[in-house]
Amino acid sequence: MEPPASPRDAMRGGIQSTAMPSDATRVEARSSVVESIRGCGLTGLQIDKEELRQRLIMPKYLRVAMRNSIRFQDSDRGLEKDPLSVAEDAETPQTPESPLVVFINSRSGGRHGSELKLRLQQLIADEQVFELKDVKPHEFVQYGLACLEKLASAGDQCADETRKRMRVVVAGGDGTVGWVLGCLGELNSQGREPVPPVGIIPLGTGNDLSRSFGWGGSFPFSWKSAVKRSLDKATSGRVVRLDSWDLSMSMPFGETIEPPHSLKQTEDCCLDQSLEIKGEMPDKTSCFRGVFYNYFSIGMDAQVAYGFHHLRNDKPYLANGPIANKILYSGFTCTQGWFFTPCISEPSLRGLKNILRIHIKKMDSSEWEQIRIPSSVRAIVALNLQSYASGRNPWGNLKPGYLEKRGFVEAHPDDGVLEIFGLKEGWHASFVMVELISAKHIAQAAAIRFEFRGGEWQRAYMQMDGEPWKQPLNKDFSTFIEIKRVPFQSVMIHGDD
Q1: What is the pTM (predicted TM-score) of this model?
Q2: Which residues make Cβ contacts (< 8 Å) with residue 75, sequence separation at least 6?
């Protein structure tokens, strides 16, 4: 079900759900500097602060009800009338045009995170700005939105309209955006529609989700006026769709890993039984499950990310902003053995075909088929967006003749397939990242199964949406990772004009 249009949407022609064409996506992926300059311009200054506030702010009694429900983790607590808020809303409460809730990770964005939080509270209201270290997205869904729904079911028309028109903005990096999207996605499985669409204020390092949906690739220089512009766009931006991907992992029991935030241990594994597993299976397995929105990767790129993240955690003073992060990341790439690999005999630096077998399901097919892994590939990426590693497009903008020859379709964030490509040695990856050449195209797939077996390899490196981990490998039993599309698409606000 589409989220309801606000009055401003109606004046602008309603909601659209078509994906942006690939040329536009390519331009957006390179637009961080342009967006920053635009943020410095007069556009943000022309937005009247009070008029914007009136479009965003919810009646006091609803704000207090949501706050109390979340604070006490009881959606019924919000049903108790607060005398002060009732007095403030003595007249018939008016439903705002675009009621907005903001989640902010104030630790992102360098030194601006805490200042941005104060600015947002001034532009909206304290109760509608949630610091992620204090209020988790699932608490907002479970208690805050549930409180509005209960008020609506009791006949409160203002609460009903506010819930239907609700929009969300996330001020943070890709990981934070994914976290919020995952929690909001639970509304689909619970039958609690509509799902609020999500806009972005980019505070991370890569910001690939933000780039892909027209919100820019970096925190603007003139951020105070740019914040008003972002909130204004969030009230009226068109709504588009984003595929999300469920990842299930089964590994031999007894191996230990430090999984990323997005990967949770579960009791059961959800591997497709229609694909026969060759060889023996261990008596017991450990199972993990998570969701990603941009990419999953294996190999050297994940190893570089793993080293960088540990360096940043151990020495946070070295990574005090996006520019410093990118410099450190580039330097770390040169120390991990991706370059000059042929001169080194370490098995972990050889091609992934030594440890990996891949099966895929193509679009509109129920049959699994094994695909060949090029011998020279040292990193494999399954990509959903055409923005990777801070706005690069390694898949490339392929010509119609090549697409037809390979049996590919033009890539979009909501097309139901992942683009699988490989990166060779560091020199090849460097040319791909500056878009002089495309990556090694392997396949497009609606479902993927990766099978890993150790041998000389004792570990491999993997990452989901920039969250890396070190995966132990067993020489006797395989580790399986299976990826399939989540039935419900995420709902995004596009930030273009």
Answers
A1: 0.81
A2: 69, 142, 143, 144, 146, 147, 150
